[in-house]
């Protein structure tokens, strides 16, 4: 490899050369280079350049082609993303220089492109990879038609010479395994390229989209700005080699390398459409680039055995090549076709034509055709009550539920849909590690026919027994038959029958000819069929790949299109026309409908809103069956969709649901149980329907009892959505669209130790309470008195702020001295959330006059309560009746009671205390590593993590907080922001959030905090 000898120059002799040729006075720092010499040139007044001294073997013509390429690419890409050539004093873009050893070289100065090398930039999101592909496509577009003849000499990294290069350098590979992979990969490439070679487009390409040539400038929102450097490996070769090279590097260290490649190819195709034959060779080409890198690396290592770095830098490529040995090249091909919006399986249309024509000629799977008289199509989708009810219960119970459903629908046979999104594939085999964390396989690729075990299954079409296997793992297929079918005008295809009785494995033989209508097997029972209710899973397969006796019956949602092309809808064979195919929720249409029907003041969370169709304990599940860890819902207190809550609600709805005007034990018992949870003298209860109603009533009681109207509130407090509540909520009336506080509302500064007026924990409680006293005195001076002081026991909208010690105690004293009442708003923070106590006011050692309850009280059911003293309740009873149509209704009380039962039974307050304390400690430790975290605060399962830009000024970091929330969402963890600066990450999960969840949250948060856009001191 003679071209690897680098030009003999030193920094000392280059500095005067720079001055002489460019009139620039620069400091120089050498940059890595394989063949050339590159320097970072920093001009005194600030501009930065890269100086390149080309290898002596480089011709002027070739360097001129590079200059054209730079110019053309720069025209198509954003300014500054491609090095711009800086002419010398004579206006030339290349200057001739002589090295110390007397050889002649060409020198070029170009503007420096900043950014982190892609290898160091994190995260490589889906959008990032799309954009990278887009840039790669754009560069190909700019370069491929440069009117210059191909280089006269052969270059090492050229794809069209890869066979010769590998054969020449392969003997240097000492690692036998690696050598085997390289040989196998070369064999695949050689076979594939043979038929394609003459048809593949050729042109000029950059040929080195590697992870150190792609640069990324991190941005706090949106994609980073991408740049590309080093056009020194440009060559004239297959155009497909450009994305292949880029893929080889973009796939390094990825949880699912094919996913990364497919995204890059999608982006590429959008800017420079790839042809079908190019997609055929792409996967073998990707492997070739890896092989080239590993083989030339092995060669270099032999020449430089001391250089340990060489081995280390090859590790990710070796790992990737090893992983790619497992990938069926046809599968990668289909995936890449799909990425380019082509039908994934190339033979699809031939199959479709045959299928349509053959329709009507199929034999019934169960002997007789399925007909609407005895068949019910089941909704087993993630959002259906049928699947929610049958998950997590015994098979007997599942059977009862299904039988009841079929009975109610006068059916004997149930049909489970094709392409349905299901959440009950819980074994770990159904998990895939993707760019966005774990993705579950949820898309059903067959049709299920539910009938009693022992029911005979017949072959719907002529075929041959191709594979037989008993797949015995839990939730697998159990005994399975795969038939092969061959007809004219259609590629060979297969049908799969899963969950059969064991006998078929003995009765059938591989190679046995099966006539349509012949009995194949029987439906298996739950002991033999993988642990399912008796049914047959029937699936069409157009490419069996290397599977033997088993085959994926469920696909990743992100690969739905690919897999439905390989495994088309078998409904037609079963005589089911369309009704057995699940429809996908179209998020765009749903959003439009929502916007049309709801008022625009209702907001949606996240830039790309989630379609949530189900809740389960601490998870929310989206329409693609993906689970999101809910860290913000303090309403689903005992967990989303708790079965005991559903039962309590449903059972009571069968019996009675009316108002409080009749004597009935249920609402009385509930009110008694609630009151027992409070200290004396809080013993009297009003039941309402929401937190807002509770605060409305609390205000009414206070003003009736005190005879006053004036309210004392906290800065940035929120107490509800009604008009009076907005009046006492500075968070709203001082926010966008608000008109400020009415004359009867008086605000004190937020008692906020981290950022507030008083920050010394020893004195802050008193000082903030003094503010309450000040208002009382001002009112007094005007001949007025406070009606009430209302305060959350820990501040929610204020930014998850615990109150300073002594604040409530002293504030209550001042208010009471001036004749006012003290209201504790426990809507957010009650019911054991604080961990140490059942009510958060207990953290402050006070007993309020009125306590308002909402949110968690009904676990999502509209319920609220006001708890006060008998004396106050009596004073409120001034003759005006308090009537609330729904408050205290029996269904709500039944739900409320179930919440209390579950809390006790499942020890949820204790869990909040233990898990919350553990998590807080770990979050505090994170603060040490990430200066972005300014403060970690809270109690139990009510915590805030405040993000700041600067530890001195504590300037809020709202954009960074949004970034974290969005990134955590893409990692399937739901958080949100709070606080006046929108910079506090709030944590208030369902109380069933456990230690495992806490660890998961921490590890994901740590990774996100470490991502490039959040690093302040990046040096490019
Ligand atoms: C502290 C506080 N009080 C009262 C309310 C009002 O409750 P609801 O929305 O159930 O009416 C809220 C709601 O967010 C709240 O956070």
CA distance, first residue to last residue? 32 Å
Beta-strand portion reads 15-25%
What structural class should be given to the helix and strand makeup? alpha+beta
Helix coverage percent: 25-40%
Key features of this structure:
1020 residues; alpha+beta; binds pyridoxal-5'-phosphate; 19% strand; 8-stranded mixed beta sheet; 7-stranded mixed beta sheet; flat
Could you explain the architecture of this structure?
The chain has 1020 residues and is of the alpha+beta class. Helix content is 36%, strand content 19%. An eight-stranded mixed beta sheet has the order 12-13-17-24-21-20-19-22. Strands 29-37-36-35-32-30-31 form a seven-stranded mixed beta sheet, with helices on both faces. Strands 1, 2, 3, 4, 5 and 6 form a six-stranded antiparallel beta sheet that branches. Helix 3 crosses helix 7 (257-271) and helix 8 (276-303) crosses helix 10 (329-339). It is flat, with a radius of gyration of 35 Å.
